[in-house]
Design brief:
The protein is built from 6 helices and no strands. With about 140 residues, the protein is mainly α. The chain is globular and about 50 Å long.
Length: about 140
């Protein structure tokens, strides 16, 4: 998390911290759940980012738009079988903070991949811990 905070500060996008902190907690605490698997973590955040930017472009930045984007993101994750509840916060952050997609999306993608890799490394470093991931895709 410190590396993600540092990177976010350097590129002036600290808004990633809340959704990624929640994702890290899920990957670390309940690594066997479907919402902790790489498919859900990575695809969930990227799908919700797309929904957030789409809602922002179509409806502007407002709290009600953020709520709609979160709901649409949740529905899209359900349909695509990529459940990851913290990703809804990504859509909300995008609508309310309007980050530049040229920096935000690559930072988001890199961060979720790093989070998944950290989960893999941690599960192998601790003897007797549950293996993460249970499945990749």
């Amino acid at each position: 998390m410190l590396a993600l905070v540092a990177i976010g500060a350097v590129v002036h996008e600290p808004v990633l911290i809340p959704p990624l902190a929640a994702s890290a907690a899920i990957v670390h605490s309940v690594p066997g759940l479907p919402l902790a698997q790489p498919r859900s973590v990575i695809a969930g955040h990227l799908l919700c980012a797309a929904v957030g930017y789409g809602a922002l472009a179509a409806l502007g930045s407002a709290p009600w738009v953020a709520a709609v984007a979160a709901g649409l993101g949740l529905a899209l994750m359900t349909v695509t079988r990529t459940p990851h509840s913290p990703a809804c916060a990504t859509a909300v952050v995008i609508v309310l903070r309007t980050p530049d997609p040229r920096t935000f999306v690559p930072l988001l993608a890199g961060s979720v991949v790093l989070l998944v890799l950290a989960g893999c490394a941690l599960s192998r470093a601790r003897s007797g811990s549950a293996r993460y991931p249970v499945y990749w895709w």
